[in-house]
Specification:
Strand content: 15-25%
Structural class: alpha/beta
Distance between the termini: 70 Å
Order of helices and strands: HHHEEEHHEEHEEHEHEHEHEEHEE
Length: 364
Amino acid sequence: MKSYQFKSMIINDIKTGKLSPGEAIGSAKELSDKYGIPYITINRVMAELGEKGYLNRIKGKGTFVSPDLTPAVPKRRFGLCFDDDLYRKDTANGFSAFGIFAFHARSVLKEKGYDIFDFTVNELLDPQFDRKYQIDALLAPSNIPKAAIPLLVGKKLPVAVVQHSSFFEYPFHQVIPDIMGGFLQITKLLRENDVRTIHVLYTDNYTACSRVEVFQQAAKWEGIPEDAIKLFCNPFGQGDFGQLTGYRMARQLLKNFEPGSVIFSPSDFLSFGIVNAFFEEEMVAGRDFHLISFDNLEDESLLPFGRPLLTSLDFPKREIIERAIQLLEEKIDRPSPELVTIRVPAELVIRETFKPIIKQEVIS
């Protein structure tokens, strides 16, 4: 690192608040070792920054950020690419499933005082789509058109893609739910509860299929026999986000349902329909049937049964957005060609549809 780069970095860290007023920045020797800059050069830069009021050098104690400085909040310009037809649904179902990403992104960026500019995925196909706005970074979902990818790469603009399932081969930063870690929680729970049969009900679309593939891998790693997993795949039913499809699949399953078996569904919407079918037969969740789902939409106040009911792996949409914005901030401040993939932990929420058996010790 050159001396001028070191100087600019310290000033930028102070202005953006990464170095707080009164915070120690390290001795000249420590900084020399860390950044590979001669000790005498570090001393000279620190003396200069002290004269300009950025640093306060106290003999025998060290060098500190001036306590009188107030970090300036940079007026960053963020592009958001969440299409109206996909992410701004009027229904509660649509908002819970898709709208959280866009809604929470706007909320976080506004709170930070940043400028926000909306684009559609089709606008990304125009090489000059951002010329008018001069954005600093772009936050987008996974449906970026293939033809737009080289255009975005050519702009050398920090781009973070938020995902609904697994990693994509994109030349961008990605923030995704740690589905494998979550599914390992589920399969471990199933193994510990001696579940012999797992009915996997899902629809024929990319997101559901990719989640089921990860679930099967997690089950394999947990030592669950391959023949214990029974796959049932149906075409996706339009109009209700899959609830009707789940209901129909459950009606078929009920014809030969095995007591003690468990249903796994990669979608809460599908699970809502499944549970409705069992309720029609006056079966009790957690006693007559057991189900584990994915998404935890009930924590988004989507309560078709009047109360939270599904044992479900949480899809941490808000945490994904917050981490994606933090990542873009870091890349704006310190550009680098390195691509980062972040997996945000997904935790299993235990409710009525599957409660683990508590094994008690037998005292002889």
